[in-house]
Amino acid sequence: MPRFSANLGFLWPDRPLLDRIDAAAAAGFRAIELHWPYDVSAHRVKDRCAEHGLVLLGLNTPVGQSEKGEFGLGAVPGRQADFEVGFQQALEWGRTAGASVIHVMAGVVAPQEKHAGRSVLVENLRKAASRAPEMMLVLEGINQRDRPGYFYSTIGEKAEIINEVDAPNVKIMFDVYHVGVSEGDIFGKLATHLPIIGHVQIAAVPSRAEPDEGEIHYANVFRELDRLGYRGWVGCEYKPRAATDSGLGWARTLGTAIS
Ligand SMILES: O=C(O)[C@H](O)C(=O)CO
Ligand SMILES: [Mg+2]
């Protein structure tokens, strides 16, 4: 069965980041992943993870100007210089904290700019990948219902970009929730793209709650990941229905364990 990581962007939202790390350890998680931890000291996060023996996986590149609707800058024409600054910030924070993964966020791009956006993203990724050879850079499609206009929502689009970038440390973040909402055929896509899948995330479809309700039977997804030989982590990136701790029973219901 998979190894689970607690996504502290969504889990234990009622407390500060360092307390979320404590909560993840107490719940039995052996790894954590973050969204945008930049206002917390990377040294303190590193120390707190070390206290608990937790692996810190990764974080997201900054969103840019969220008040203007930006949600990442990787594929946004004209914002290359700001992307570089943001990537450097993610890299420095991640290196200091001991992370190994950076989710390079592509961003929202107007339909008429998509063609240019693709070249911008490929160029940005090539530079980023060579600047951070020890990090795995992951690309994630975000479904159009949650984030209209996001640069990509399908696994195929990301696979094409990765092929074009042609760097060994650029991979897919396969968020089963987004794939389920956007296109389905989870098993087919896992099998086709397994060699370039660097990280997996889960949540119920369509609710994005604990992975024990809705359209996807996650016990089967976990078995399929095992059958395919996936050896990476599975990030629990769901929005708890109520208190995070009271929802953790999903693991036992699905025949697995958090740790
Ligand atoms: O929303 C998601 O699925 C992400 O993984 C993310 O980090 C940006 O929101
Ligand atoms: Mg995700």
Automatic annotation (TrEMBL):
Gene3D superfamilies: Divalent-metal-dependent TIM barrel enzymes (3.20.20.150)
One Pfam family matching this protein: AP_endonuc_2
Domain Xylose isomerase-like TIM barrel: 21-253
InterPro entries attached to this UniProt entry: HyI-like, Sugar_Epim/Isomerase, Xyl_isomerase-like_sf, Xyl_isomerase-like_TIM-brl
GO molecular function: hydroxypyruvate isomerase activity
Keyword list, A-Z: Isomerase, Pyruvate
Active site per database record: 140 (proton donor/acceptor), 237 (proton donor/acceptor)
GO biological process: glyoxylate metabolic process
Family: Belongs to the hyi family.
PANTHER family assigned: HYDROXYPYRUVATE ISOMERASE-RELATED, ISOMERASE
Protein name as catalogued: Hydroxypyruvate isomerase
Taxonomic source organism: Rhizobium subbaraonis
